[in-house]
Amino acid sequence: MLRKRVIPCLDVTEGRVVKGVNFVNLTDEGDPVELAERYVREGADEICFLDITASSDNRETMLDVVRRTAEHVFVPLTVGGGIRAVADMRAVLRAGADKVSVNTAAVLDPGLIDQCAAAFGSQCVVLAVDAKQVDEGSWEVYIHGGRTPTGKDAVEWIIEAVSRGAGEILLTSMDRDGTKDGYDLALLEAVRKAVSVPVIASGGAGTIEHCVDALQPGRADAVLAASIFHRKEIEIEDLKEGLVAAGIPARITR
Amino acid sequence: MTRVVVIDHGAGNLVSIAQGLSRAGAQVDVVDDPSGIGNAAGIVLPGVGTTGAAMERLASAGLVEPLRQWDRPLLGICVGLQLFFDHSEEDGTDALGIIPGRVQLLEGAPLLPHIGWNDVTFEPDPLFSGVAPDATFYFVHSFAGVPDDESVVIARTEYGKPFVAATRTGNRVGVQFHPERSGSAGLQMLANFVSECEEASDVA
After folding, report:
1. C-alpha distance from A72 to closest chain B C-alpha (Å)
2. pLDDT tens by residue, A152-179
3. Residue range B3-203 in CATH 3.40.50.720
4. Structure pTM?
5. Residue A22 lies in a domain
6. Is 0.90 exceeded by the ipTM?
7. Which of A93, A119, A168 minimises the CB distance to B115?
8. Which of B 87-126 lie inside 8 A of A, CB atoms?
9. For A3, which DSSP code?
10. In this structure, are strands B161-169 and B153-159 parallel, antiparallel, or unpaired?
């Protein structure tokens, strides 16, 4: 049976993992390779790196982090942040990533999704969407790390992106992000109904129950979280066992 | 030292495959043309993306015939396995044709692509030596091979319906999942392949 996935996300800048609130007051949380290795030992099904600097002069530093991680970590690695062209995606894949997520650049130039899917296959192309609720049952896409509203409807954008070749959706609720109030279940359900590619839930995880709720049928296929894992508020192994106890198929490594 | 070459046909993560093979004691060379193969004891044919794009790149690098004629150990991974078949329905491409059969869209799959860790039911084979029967492996694909002759199948996985997860035809083995992304069980399989390469070169 296909397992539901637990994915720790690491925000990386200048070769270090950082954590902050709304991209300010960043604190150093450690070496990305060491943290990724720790998560894999604890049962992470996949690792996600988000390059939050993403200015072009730091690309080499990020590629080096990806390369060193791929040498030490034998689970899938998704890398996002600053991917603006097929060449950026190729560099990240060749450094050792398995999947690449696109966000702002894809909104500004949706053809980027077609180009990346044609070059590397849909299975490599993750569409990351930052969605903010505007009304009951409707969400707007934000770009530039959540700073710029686009006027685009999130569900319609996701349908378009999948038709262009996105193979997976990394769906962040901006309303829930950082709140630890639980994932936006209505958003997950709306997207699940609209497309038939895997959906990764992001934003709002605070407890094991939140993950159980997000992974129910008709919602997400994977849960992504950052701070609750960094700070060991939830141990990944405990989360996996909690999922299994709640009847959700998860990969137990302990 | 056993020399294993990994074919680089332009896409995908080769870092973890190379690292997994060298951890098992192989001398690993990543090559993109036939001259790089030389006296290798074994070849790994990885692959992401589409079979059509992969066949184009293999053809332009002059690698199609060398791969067809290779009779030492060969490991195809994901699209690498799909390339073993006659034909892929993904983009209507003829592939290497070393296993009679076709590559087809996963039938009855709940969602596509099939992404994530899944069970693999395998038959006794050196490739799975030392792998726990309940080990799970990482898949990311929408298509899978359908061989004419079922006896080449050494492992199956179920996603909606059962599909072929691994094949063996003599020295040629293929896996639809990614051993280089499947934790310790996957590393064990890469080590098993390196052992197979060592044994084959001892005989030769």
Report:
1. 8
2. 999 999 999 999 999 999 999 999 998 9
3. no
4. 0.95
5. yes
6. yes
7. A168
8. 110-119
9. P
10. antiparallel
